[in-house]
Sequence to fold (420 residues):
Amino acid sequence: MSHSNYDSARAEYAERGVDAEAALRVAAATAISLPCWQGDDVGGFEGVAGSLAEGGLQVTGSHPGRARSAAELRSDFEQASRVIPSRRLRLNLHAMYGEFPTDRPVDRSRLLPSHFSGWMDWARARGFGLDFNPTLFAHPLAADGFTLSHRDPKIRQFWIDHTAASRRVGAALGAAQGSPAITNVWIPDGCKDTPADRKGPRERLITALDEAFREALDPAGVRDAVEGKLFGLGSESYVVGSHEFYCGYAISRQKLLCLDLGHFHPTESVADKISSLMPFVPGVLLHLSRGVRWDSDHVVLLDDPTRAVLDEVVRGGYLDRTWIGLDYFDASINRVAAWVIGARNTLKALLAALLQPAEELKRREEAGDATGRLACLEDAKTLPLGAVWAELCRRAEAPGDGRWLSEIETYERQVLAKRR
Ligand code: RNT
Ligand code: ZN
Fold:
């Protein structure tokens, strides 16, 4: 894409009252956080993990080249980052990705920041940010499907200690990088079949979360988020941490609320929730994802739900208290490409949101001109987003569309294919 294509695109946007330069500036300054677990099929490095399916996270596919160590995962992420046009990339770590002594597994309730010093050194050297999650699945004490809401106080305490320890890791990551590590709590707790008691586990979860969050930590280092879900594999009839549960929790405790796009009824609009929640919560953590039938974790597309969410974030002026994370794992395609495709689509959707003819839409709506509003929305769909996107790639020194895949294919041949 030549520079003059961008110039004419900028003029075309200007005619609609849109400042393409401003959109490029904001897009370049916005951080996006990629799921480390896309690189190794949610495996982690504990060596002795329980079954992943116990947490309802089913990874499918057998594409060769899964990262088997922190070194491989870091190398893969670096390769992905070279073709993602962002200087504000973050990697979202899970507790199970600590670098532990190989001879004995570390008890998750005794997790320490030092288990993540390799990640911190690497992130600092490469200019990446880090986010964090306690891992409340794939563990013998999560095998019966309950963690923080478990009826056994000893098991509950173990997970409280793990979550509290994870917050301290988050705080250490945040202090090291000078920006908060968003530390997100998701639990798989729920039942396959109709429970008799829906209330008890939820009451226990409130108390457990309060205990896990008790220690006052500097919000400049760590910000807590909580993530609800509609159902999971093996928790089809009841999920303790439902959306309503965490809405109430996040509002009453002033925590960030995590909205995962795969965690709602398929016809429910997550975009519509943004302006309903923002007046009441300090901020929102997005888990951009794509639900397909029973799976909530397909690669992010430049699709209507993704665009609508970011449109709402931009329209509402909420960007400064929205954290954009991606959450998916697909083992049926090249895992590095999966990161790249989801990240590029996220940035494209963000850019599209920043390029919407917001002033004209608002003006027409305020004048009661529903016809003009619809016409404007539809005409905006064929504005030259591609030329502005190409300019974003150029400024970030990343390849444009149609030019990045060959680099990943070379990496696949030279590195991934040799992992057996
Ligand atoms: C699971 C949640 C959660 C996980 C990650 C691995 O349904 O979406 O965010 O995907 O913590
Ligand atoms: Zn999620």
Notes: The radius of gyration is 22 Å. The chain is about 40% helix and 10% strand. The pocket of zinc ion (ligand 2) is lined by residues 186, 227, 260, 287, 327 (CB under 6 Å). Residues 82 and 243 are 36 Å apart (CA to CA).
